[in-house]
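Task card 7
Instruction: Convert sequence to structure tokens.
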Amino acid sequence: MLDATNRSGGTATASPRAAASELAIAVPTAATAAPLLSVRSAGPSGFVARCTRVLLSPWSRLSLLLVLLAAAGACVLLFEPQRLITHGWPPQLGGATAAAVFAAAYGLCTVAFVPRPLLNLAAGALFGSQVGLGTALTGTVLGAGIAFGLGRLLGQDALRPLLRGRWLKAADGQLSRHGFRSMMVARLFPGVPFWAANYCAAVSRMGWLPFLLATALGSVPNTAAYAVAGARASAPTSPAFLVAMALITVPALVGTVVAWRKRHHLRAR
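Output:
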């Protein structure tokens, strides 16, 4: 609102009350416009941040691990890798290439819950005792490392809060404090499935180096026995085959006895 021009012909000037009211209206408008602009600009990024937090949450990662394991198990059922024992290796692959491919397939199959004894027998039948042993050990360490990495990355944060039972706490403490020794026992004496030992170690606080080193060393006797048995399967009465079967049976019995005697020790913890 402007005052009327003065009678002397001067220019019109705004009254102080009108200028103050216009300023009061303009200031809130400018003050409220800035937050609206910031909300509009930060809206998509905030949504992306929330989605990222949900996808990277412990339970989302655990769900991804379960989906991957289920898919791996379905692939094993579909392709049936155990047919290698009866059908043999593809003729177009031979030598070092065949051994490398078999070691990689061995590792992936162990992640997908294929029993290692079956794979060890196949390694011995396809490549002989010595090459079969080296190939099977390579696949063993590779598969254990993949399973340990998946369990540590995708499952540890979600599963560790669930370790509340006495047995679970005792097993977790044993693996966390005495990782190398515990994994050596698990590999030397059959009884604990290979995949179960891998994922239990991943959920614990065991380090990478003790886990892989104990897996490589502790798997040698059992793997060698199965590889020799697979290589000499055509002569089941040969001394080598009989010794291999003894090396398979005796550690299994010893492991069963040790586990039976240790059950009271675990309950007392």
